[in-house]
Amino acid sequence: MTRKEPRRIEIFDTTLRDGEQAPANAMSSQDKLDLALRIEALGVDIIEAGFPASSSNDFDATQAVSAALSRARVATLSRARRDDVETAVQAAGGRNHVLQIMGTGSDIHLEHKLGITRQQAIEDAVDAARFAASLGVETVAVGIEDATRGDLGYLQQLTERAVEAGARYIPVADTSGCASPAEFGDLITRIRSWAPAPVRIGVHCHNDFGVATANAIAGLEAGADDVQVTVGGIGERAGNTAMEEVCAFLAYKGERIGLYSTADLAGIYSVYNRLREIIRLEEPRNKAIFGKYAFGTAAGIHQAGMLRNPATYEYVEPARFGRERSLLISRHSGRAVLRHLLGELGLEIDKTELDEIYRRYIFERAESDCEDISVLRERLAADLAPVPG
After folding, report:
1. pTM attached to this predicted model
2. Is residue 37 pLDDT above 90, yes or no?
3. Claim to verify: residue 254 and residue 210 sit in the same structural domain
4. What angle do CA 238, 205, 144 make, to 5 degrees?
5. Cβ distance 212 to 248 under 8 Å?
6. What is its pathway (predicted)?
């Protein structure tokens, strides 16, 4: 049996466009440029700078980002209109430009948002794609918005007509976050059959059910070539697929599923912290990879195991993501952590003394009182170490 060569998955970052358009995430042109250069340094393949026709800020940011990128390609978003396409080309040029034209995938969007028929939507997308190609755009894309609620026959027609018109990239969006991994994987399998290589397929998932990463991975396994993500998963409503989650999954499970990414895992956390500064995003406690306590524990039974071998409760390694593990002392900590610290300090105590120290330093803590193990070590050293002389 011949083993397939693993496929490299391209990372398409939409922090500056889909992430930024969500409530409270507004960024200036300078902010976008700052983040774009940091994101490019991670080895990301494509950076979506904005929707140039939507505002002067997006136009200016796209122009600045496009001029500054040295390795990553720049992406833009346009409605299926020639004037939008022309504005995007004015902002980003044609070379190294992935120009995404919004195709409409569901009847609910056609009727209630656009007020047009399926056939009109297809003709608009085809016309915009041909126009973009005529302007020298390097990669013309027709994305399928709300694809997961679309009729399969219509989606096939839209995909095949887009490819005939020159589209070489088809991003598929679970816009309302309504799909399951099995449903989304099946949809990508179908679209892959309608748009065979060298046309590339992208996956763009939202997190309304909390399964954006799972859906994105299912789509990649089904044959998609890239994944559209945001740093920290920021984006509309519950957010987008988080870059760090996908990259972590591929780092640990990629060999098993035959996929890999070359993104810089260790650098993503510093980019996330810069993003938080710009949009004033509070630090979450329990978010995967980036949560304040994602690599911390306060439970005594966990600490007892981790003091012997961190792998007992730590599958994802913090150092790979520029993080550090932390043992946090709280009312839930046990005597094992005290024995460990007292041993480090060279203090020998009996059971009665240990029980008293446990009562004073751990048991009587307020429920919310929590500190790093290093702080307790200093306190124990100051209180219990013998006085010289």
Report:
1. 0.93
2. yes
3. yes
4. 125
5. no
6. Amino-acid biosynthesis; L-leucine biosynthesis; L-leucine from 3-methyl-2-oxobutanoate: step 1/4
